[in-house]
Predict the 3D structure of the following.
Amino acid sequence: MTTPVYRFAPSPNGPLHLGHALSALTAFDLAQRAGGRFLLRIEDIDVTRCREEFVTGIVEDLSWLGIAWEEPVLCQSQHFATYVQAAQWLEAQGLLYPCFAARSEIEAAVSPGAVDPDGASIYPGLHKNLAPAQIETRMQNGERFALRIDMEKALAKAHERLGGAPLTFTELSADGTPQLIAAHPERWGDAVILRKDVPASYHLAVVVDDARQGVTHVTRGRDLYAATDLHRLLQVLLGLPEPAYHHHPLLAGSDGRKLSKSAGDTGLAELRAGGATPTDIRRMAGIG
């Protein structure tokens, strides 16, 4: 049987907090119990926000928690060419198209209430049907563009690849019980697959990296549950293996919102400096 492979894949755009500890420890504990491998991946495609000092902090925090991982650590910022290659393959299949629209243009054209699972406006298709000559001219003029997925064509292609079977993913409960979940990537609309500012996107990079690292079990927060729909679509289109998923509950602050870096929630390093132990962190994160 294949050795299970788990991973923790944080973005180094701020210090780790208790929510990250929950994700990392859950994945590490599951790997230990299964006799599997555990990987650390640094998802640093957002080069404007990610900083080396946060990478150092991640390594220190995880080591303090008693988490060990295989070397070398994959850093996504070193592999943009790989993501571009995957996107170019999708583009050659007629599944991606260039979008030159500015955010202000998109917001001015969106339908009221048309939002994706993250609450962002669903792309209204402004540049979906540009003539090839228009595209070439704008590219020659140096206009920046993103590559978006043509969701209608992508769903048709996936349906063909699956032999008419529905698009699904396997969700594992906390005790490992599998449940087959219907995926609905159409609720994301024509999502960005390659961004304007960097030659990657979270959705493409995570799918490509899980496949090339042989990840068999993806453990992450419930806030990424809906993203699995889009990830399964990309896996089918690119001919990549399907991992099993476990989306654990999120930790919330006293005000009920999920813990986040942007809100400045207390980091693990600060808790450690205040005298907390790894056992305390497990208790605070709700891990028995």
